Amino acid sequence: MEIQIQPMTREAAARISTWHYPAPYDFYSMAADEEDILELMNGDYAAASDSAGNLVGFYCTGNSARVAGGYGAGLYEDDTCVDYGLGMNPELTGQGAGLDFVKAGMAYVSDKFPGKGIRLAVAKFNQRAAKVYSRAGFRETCEFSSMVGGRNVLFIGMVYRFPDDARTT
């Protein structure tokens, strides 16, 4: 899948906010309200489209990509990494396009933040995504729990270092 990344628009944010994921991934769903749209428009998010212009997902960086429980686990203490989050249209998940989608986002982050490693947090139950991240070169660094939607969720912290980066994860 060829991915084009552009600044988030209000139209894209409104569409993304209506995406609903099936259980157990449903905690990634948004409420489709103005608060969600404003979050997606805060400057940390970018929209991702395929070559036909169809909205396929989003990427985010910085504080918007962080999970609250990661602070207590020390996940965010390393300033040599940029925090990275992503979401794929639920109609496209589980169809084998995840690795291309993740790698497109990694290239976007690398261009936007040259010289930085990339850090993400993934819900531990989301083994489908964790496997894709591992295939993309991310390595697990820690586990932590965080409250999400009134539920205590276990997360895995993962880091990617570019090959010319001598630091280890």
TrEMBL record:
The organism's taxonomic lineage, starting at the top: Bacteria, Bacillati, Bacillota, Bacilli, Bacillales
Domain of life: Bacteria
Name of the protein in its database record: N-acetyltransferase domain-containing protein
Domain N-acetyltransferase: 3-163
Listed transmembrane segments: none
InterPro entries: Acyl_CoA_acyltransferase, GNAT_dom
Gene3D superfamilies registered for this protein in UniProt: 3.40.630.30
